[in-house]
Amino acid sequence: MTIQKRGLISLNRAAYELIGSPEAVELLWDSDRRVVGLRATDLANPDAYPARPQSAQSNRGPILVAGSLFTRYIGLDTTEAKRWVPQVEDGILTLDLKVEGQPVSSNRRGTGESARETK
Fold it and tell me: Does pLDDT of 114 surpass 70?
C-alpha cells in the first residue's frame, strides 16, 4: 500500500483482493494506535471513498483511492510518497504508521530520456 504525494492511496491488486475487491472503502483512523484502516463498503455509504483502477482499459495495475482530505485530517506528511506492507485485522486492511514507510521514487523517465541513456 502506497500513500503518494498529496495523499492519493494506491493499493496493489493483492492488497485490494484481501478486502474483497470492493467498489469503495471507508478510511478509518485509530489515533491511539496510529493505524489507518481501509474497510470495504458500498458506494451508497456516505463515508465511502470510491476505489478505482488506475487504468479503465485494463484489469491490471493499482487501485486508487483519493485520500488527500483524509491524510490532511490525520496530519500525515505526504510530501514524499511512501510504501508500507499492510495487514488485515478483522476484514480491515490496516497500515501501522508507527512503522516508517519505505520512500518510493517514480519509475517514470524524463522527457527524451531512454533506457540506454540511464546507465
Answer: no
